[in-house]
Amino acid sequence: xxxxxxKLRDPLYKNSIFLMISSIxxxxxxxxxxxxxxxxxxxxxxxxxxxS
Length: 52
Hints:
By secondary structure, the protein is mostly helical. The chain has one domain (2-51). Helix content is 90%, strand content 0%. The chain is rod-shaped and about 50 Å long. The protein starts with a helix and ends with a helix.
């Protein structure tokens, strides 16, 4: 636990962790969007828009 606290003080590690968290959140919200889109729109509409 102490090593993690020390690494979080380093800007390089802190920024890389924030970038990873941002990517995970972006992927998660994108997945939720497509689940909602698939629920309310036809398969053809979702397929066409996913290609663009």
